[in-house]
């Protein structure tokens, strides 16, 4: 190993960087690592798992000297300013045609800026989304690279070897130009927000509405995960309800966790860009809103005393409600994916990414947080109809929604009757009802806009012609 030039370098020897480095080593690649905390990098190199195929540089100069030319360097540092600081320190020691890959959760606009800046120095730059957390980084994540095609071609072998695999297909593919990779990861996280909100609502209805115990909840989620709802998020949900508190093994840890959900911003970014592109993503929007509302802990405690809801508990058939929740979660998952893929379709057109939605669905099938059994039929839908405008228009998905629609309506009604918040399920139902409406009351909104702001309107019998009416004048005449 002493004279070996490493295949790739990783800056950041923390949880993600360290695990990804060991993943690469497992697949026969030699890896150089650097961390601002030199001891952390050295500790990783000396670990048994490294197998002598890791090398550490105490300085960035030592680190880059360990790499085979042209050099490929993966950054696994916190998004934002740290990425710019590392790149600023790295660039003076790099040559033209060297490659920097940002593997953090960077905002796609930062990725666009960095690619342009690096191009001025002749250095290749890629933004790559990574999903799967620490476990995925170690054992096989879903990887979402975008940028110059020649940059991806250089490291394709490493990425395909280290990514998760489903039916021998690697969960990585070149997604498109510019910031395509980080944009896809952003939307992945937005869908993740939506799915987590829906699952939390099933939990609330079963816990507060039906008074179910953690053991009962774990059994329900286990059963759901064994069927059509099979997904990573349901798998870990089952395990969470089985996890006992270390201080008091009679208690389940989740019951001791404060009900304030944090966020790092990717869900919010998804909502922001969807609004800019005028793409409806109500499940994502509601999920972000509910995380914000969860932070109003003091206000909610005051509200629980000042505001009153329905009295009494659930008096219907428990088994039927649980089955309706299962069916509703299935529909909610479809609508969450549908909104995310619609946003990707519109963004690809706007930002000229050239995304293949079938490819996105394929690489999300394994290694990532939103992996689920649904992604196989989603992939099939886009494979048969690449220009499909919305997943709900696919014949198979529309049939599945129609067959479960009554269950979703029952769940929303039940939540209302019990006074339990179910904004995710309500958003899914309203999205479906709006989407299936050949007519919406938006004509009144447009008339109002023209009345107070002279914003004009189109007549159904005069398409393409924008008109304005002097509403007050007519009112004065009469």
- Strand order, largest beta sheet: 3-2-1-4-5-6-7
Total helix count?
A: 20
Query: What proportion strand?
Result: 5-15%
Radius of gyration in whole Å, from Cα? 25 Å
Report the strand count. Answer: 11
Low-pLDDT windows of residues: none
In CATH, what is the class of the largest domain?
Answer: Mainly Alpha
Identify the overall geometry.
globular
Biggest pleated sheet? 7 strands, mixed
Total separate domains: 3
> Do you know the CATH topology of the largest domain?
N-(1-d-carboxylethyl)-l-norvaline Dehydrogenase, domain 2
Can you identify the CATH superfamily of the largest domain?
Answer: N-(1-d-carboxylethyl)-l-norvaline Dehydrogenase, domain 2
Mean pLDDT, rounded to whole units? 95
Kindly report how far apart the N and C termini lie. Answer: 93 Å
**What is the structural class?**
alpha/beta
For this structure, the quaternary state is single chain
The CATH architecture of the largest domain can be named as Orthogonal Bundle
Describe this structure in words.
This protein has 478 residues and is α/β, with parallel strands linked by helices. The protein has three domains: 8-178, NAD(P)-binding Rossmann-like Domain (Rossmann fold, 3-Layer(aba) Sandwich); 185-435, N-(1-d-carboxylethyl)-l-norvaline Dehydrogenase, domain 2; 442-477, Up-down Bundle (Single alpha-helices involved in coiled-coils or other helix-helix interfaces). Helices cover 55% and strands 9% of the residues. It has 20 helices and eleven strands. A seven-stranded mixed β-sheet has the order 3-2-1-4-5-6-7, with helices on both faces. A hairpin with a 2-residue loop joins strand 10 and strand 11. It starts with 7 loop residues before the first strand and ends with a helix.
